[in-house]
Amino acid sequence: MPEQEYNPTSVTIPDPKQLKPKDRLAIPPQPMPSQDPLVRRKNMSEVALGYSPEQARLEALRCLQCKTAPCVTGCPVQIDIPGFIAAIANEDYKKAIGIIKTNSLLPAVCGRVCPQETQCQAPCTVGKSLKDVDKAVSIGRLERFVADWERNNGLSAAPEVKKETGKKVAVLGSGPASITVAADVRREGHAVTIFEAFHKTGGVMVYGIPEFRLPKKIVQAEIDGLKSMGVEIKTNFVIGRTRTLSDLLTKDGYDAVFIGTGAGLPKFMNIEGEDLVGVFSANEYLTRSNLMRAYDFEQAHTPIYPSVKVAVLGGGNVAMDAARTAVRLGAKEVYLIYRRTEVEMPARVEEVHHAKEEGVIFHFLENAKRILGNEEGRVKGIECLRYELGEPDESGRRRPVVIKGSEFTIDVDTVIVAIGNDSNPLIKQTTPQLETNKWGNIVVDENCKTSLEGVYAGGDIVLGAATVILAMGQGRTAAHAINQYLSSKK
After folding, report:
1. DSSP-derived secondary structure letter, 279
2. Same domain for 272 and 409?
3. Are residues 271 and 417 in the same domain?
4. Structural domain for 69, as ranges
5. Which CATH number fits the domain that encloses residue 340?
C-alpha cells in the first residue's frame, strides 16, 4: 500500500520541553506522503510529496538530542543535525535551514537523493534503541522539509561575496562538487567561471537523476543562486577539446582550476550481443529522458527507443532510476536483474520499495550471459545464469557464484546496462602529467590537490560513482584549499 499523509487532527502535538526520552521513543516514525503507484506510473512528477508541518514536528520530536550526536559523525559534511532538528521541533524553520546551510549548500537536493539510511541515520540512537534502523529519525526528510519551506516562501538568499581579489578560478563541471566549490570560492571575492560540457548546468543532478526523484526546478534554483553571486557559466565547453587544462592555466589567466567533471563513461559487461539495436547504457537512456525530455513524446525533439519488455542489469540507484523511467515511458514489463540478493543491493531501500510498488519485476541471484538478437540485429531476448552466494569479497558482500547449467532466457526487446561508470579519459589524454589511478580517477591528497600546481579535483572524478553529499564534502575541502592557495599567491 502507498504511504498516506498523516492526519494532524488525530493527535495532540506535545510540548518538546515536557518530553522524556521514553516519550520520544514512543512517537511512531512519520511516513512520507507519496503519489499513488498506479497514478505515478504514468507521470514524471515527484513521487515523494514531502512532510506536512505537523508531520515534520512529530518526526523532529522523536530525536533524543544525544550529547554525543552520533548522527553528525555519519554526515560527510558534518551538519549540526540535532541543532536543526530541535529548531524544527520548536517551529523555528528559519533557524533550522540556517544551521544546515552553514555546512551544506544543497539541502533540498540532499534531502531527496542522499542515502541517509547508510550515512547519518545509520548511527541514530533512536534506531538502535528500537533495534530497527528503519525507525531512526528521518533526518533526510526533515532536511528536505525546511529546504522546501525556505524556497516556497521566497526566503532563499545567496551568500554574501567579499571584495573582489582579482584572482580567477575555473571550475570544470557543474555537479554538486563543482557547485560547492564555486560558491565557497566566490564568497571570498575570487572570480569564478563554471565550464559545463552539456547545454544545461547541474551535472548528474540534471542528466542522471529523474524528475520524479529530483525536480529540475530545484537544481535550477541553486544554479540561479550562483549566478546572483556573480559566478559566470559557460556551457557546451568540453575540457580537452574546447580548451585543455594547460590552456586555462597558461593562456586564459586562471590562477586555479577545480576538476569536477564526474564519472560519465559507462561500463558494459563485454558479453555477446551488447552491440545490438536496443541495448543502451543507463547513462544514455537517462540522459535522453532527463536532460532532453524525451519522455515528452509530443514536444521533445530527441527520440527514445520504444520498448515493450525491458531488462535492466544492475542493482544500484541508477538501475532503479532506469527501470522506473522505463515504466513511465510505457514499457509493459520491466525486469531488474541483479546477481546478488536484495540484502546486498546498493540501491536505497526507499527506491527499491518504490520500484516494486510501480510494478518492476526483480530477478535476484541472476545475471546476463548474452543478449540475443533477431535477423535485423535488434534485441529479442536475454540469456541469463542463476547464481548462489559464496564467501565475502573485497567489498564485504558475499561473492556471487555461477550455478552451472542454469541458463534460461527472457523475452525482451530492450536491455539497459546499469553496472557503473568510469572516468572520461579525455582530460588525462590531453594532460598526461596529471596523475590518475588504474581506474582513471584523478589522484588527490587530503586537500583535494592533484599532481599539478593550482589544480584541484573532487567528486566522482576522484571517488568513482559516489553520492551527492560525498561530492559536496570534497568540494568543501577543495574550496578551502583553493582559497588558502590563492591567498598565498602574490
Report:
1. E
2. yes
3. yes
4. 8-152
5. 3.50.50.60
Q: 216-228 and 176-187 helices cross at what angle (nearest 10)?
A: 20
For residues 296 and 256, membership in a common domain is answered with no
- Regarding whether 223 and 139 lie in a shared domain, the answer is no
Q: Answer yes or no: do 367 and 280 share one domain.
A: yes
Per the confidence metrics, is the pTM higher than 0.90? Answer: yes
Residue 257 carries which DSSP code? E
Domain membership of residue 3 (yes or no) is no
Domains in the chain: how many in total?
A: 3
Confidence class of residue 1 from pLDDT cuts 50, 70 and 90? very low
Q: What are the φ/ψ torsions at residue 128 (nearest 5 degrees)?
A: -70, -35
> Do both 55 and 139 map to the same domain?
yes
Q: How many other CB atoms sit within 10 Å of the CB of residue 113?
A: 25
Structural domain ending residue among the three candidates 105, 125, 152: 152
In 3D space, the residue among 32, 112, 121 whose CA is nearest the CA of residue 75 turns out to be 121
Q: Identify whether 1 is part of a domain.
A: no
Per-residue cell: 416? 539497459
| pLDDT confidence band for 439 (50 / 70 / 90) | confident
Strand 366-373 to 379-392 pairing: antiparallel
Closest CA to 100 of 59, 142, 162: 142
15 with 137, same domain: the answer is yes
Q: How confident is the model at residue 5 (pLDDT cuts 50, 70, 90)?
A: very low
Rounded Cα distance, 187 and 470, in Å: 21
Domain boundary among 421, 439, 464: 421
- According to DSSP, the β-strands at 279-281 and 309-313 are unpaired
Average pLDDT for residues 58-73, to the nearest whole number?
96
- Rounded to whole angstroms, the Cα distance separating 95 from 425 reads 44
CB 61 within 8 A of CB 117: no
174 against 397, higher pLDDT:
174
* Domain assignment present for 222: yes
* pLDDT tens digits for range 221-279: 999 999 999 999 999 999 999 999 999 999 999 999 999 999 888 999 999 999 999 99
In a domain, 362, yes or no: yes
Tell me, yes or no, whether 458 and 360 share the same domain. Answer: no
2: pLDDT strictly greater than 90: no
Q: DSSP string covering 372-438, please?
A: EE-TTSBEEEEEEEEEEEEEE-TTSSEEEEE-TT--EEE--SEEEE-S-EE--THHHHH-TTS-B-T
pLDDT by residue (tens digit) across 453-472? 999 999 999 998 788 999 99
Q: Specify which residues 280 forms β-bridges with.
A: 416
User: Which residues, other chains included, contact 46 with Cβ-Cβ below 8 Å and sequence gap of 6+?
Assistant: 35, 211, 212, 213, 214, 215
